[in-house]
Amino acid sequence: MLNKQWLTTDLARDCNTFISRLSNTHEPLQQACINPALLSVGWPANLIAQLTPYLVATQPQLIRVNQTLLFATLPLDDNLLLIGPLTNPEILKNAHQLTLTDKPFSQLDHVPYINTQFLLQLLLNYFNLTHSIELTQADLLTTAPFNLDYLAQKAYTQHTFEQQESQLMHNSYLQEIQGLNSVTAGDIERLIANRKTFFRNGIGLPYQNNLRNAKNLAISVVAVVCRAAIKGGIHFETAFSMSDHFIAQIESLDTITAVVQLARQIEVEYTLLVHQQKQATNPHTHNPKVEKMKQFILSHQNEPVTLQDLAKYLNSHENYLSALFKRIEGQTITAYILATKIEYNQQLLIYTAKPISEIAAFIGFSSQSYFSHVFKKATATTPNQYRKANTFQ
């Protein structure tokens, strides 16, 4: 077990600044500092309260306060270490900007400097030691809004995929991906169908007894669903405005059940918004049979799907379905199947650390070489090249 009390004191020596250890509700548990200049100024009484709405427990954060002060966070089990104030121009450029009305540490003549590699490696070492999600320096330096973006999707994807593999998860990774595809398509029926298992079995095990973790998961869901809605045609300002509102609602709740219910309501609201947008801009392209074909294809992405399978599923003639799909969607059924598989593979390559051979097998390809051939033909790049080029955005 990690001795967090000792670690707090040790980091205060190594970083030469305040180290504040907080509970999962951001209540102060311990504070250590050996820097005489900082001790003479003292810790601002309301600083933790001002930072609290922006602190998350899913990954380390780099926070720039009022342009000049650097703070870092390090999640450790049910605690959160807040490190700072510090300064480092290189890191400040990539940190999340936060402007406070108060001017903390304005009396300080010299803010303690910290080496870039030292801080990043410190955060990575302790985080990766205590979490199943492995982060890199690129992850820490990826600029993203406080309501999460790349890291949220990475945590969300890896969480669902890892639990699906280990049988800890009550809802398959495929269903979660289909949930996002449902949002992008504005398909409320498919969204609800894809989450029946989730409702029947309850929220995933790691979140059953921890309100803070449930909120963090819900905030991550907001982030990825928001992006799915933007992909579905919603203007980014509208989507992000809704995201900010929903995150504030999540933070105001005091039970896990309420958090779960709100997260699912958020999925529905984004999906309905996409549906309304699509109906308004393209009212004549919705066809029930085509939607059922697309749903069947999306729910069998890790299996071979043929036109014969679709004809049997819908009790219709193959030629009729083929012509109908081409007229409504503007592409053949075969092209759609390939496109959905490629998109699914891209998500797995970006947001999980699974070997390419494992991804190929999971999605139903007979071999890694065949998977690489198909992937390169569709994207003009190999799976490995795609992963390296798109690991963070």
From TrEMBL:
GO terms for molecular function: DNA-binding transcription factor activity; sequence-specific DNA binding. SMART domains: HTH_ARAC. Keywords: DNA-binding, Transcription, Transcription regulation. Pfam families: HTH_18. Residues 291-389 form the HTH araC/xylS-type domain. PANTHER family: ARAC-FAMILY TRANSCRIPTIONAL REGULATOR, HTH-TYPE TRANSCRIPTIONAL REGULATOR EXSA. This is Transcriptional regulator, AraC family. It comes from Latilactobacillus fuchuensis.
